[in-house]
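Feature request disguised as a bug: please show the residue count (160) next to Thioesterase in the output. Example input:
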Amino acid sequence: MSKTTTPPREFEPAFVAGLKAIFEEKIVFNKVLGLTITSLLPERVVATIAMKPDLIGHYSHNRLHGGVISAGLDAMGGLACMAAIGARHMDESPEQRLHRFGKLGTIDLRVDYLRPGIGEHFELRAEVMRLGSRVASTRMEFFGADGKLLSTGSGAYIVS
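Example output, currently without the count:
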């Protein structure tokens, strides 16, 4: 009889704290975008981007640039890969798993813009569709504050 291992439902606090530090602080571009992780599970990751008000304190005329949307979706695909890799190697310490992300990189990215990115804050979600030994495939979504789907993405990432 073969032994099957079910993925963990949650990560250890040390792994979550380390991954948040990498994603939100050490990846400077994510910090510039204002990406903040709100949920980090092995099967799905969620983050937010908050718009900054203009010089007179208004949000209504701010439209999130397509490049910001694309970069946010790409970052989320990478984060989903990090979570999946972390879940795959639960036999290692959190520190060992956090060192596995040095070779992670985007191979291909597709973004479909469905609606303009207008609002004060946005939610981004991502999941890994397949995690191979060398390449991972992901699906990402970008939502407005009202819950409407604004953009979708799919990506391929080198993970070895």
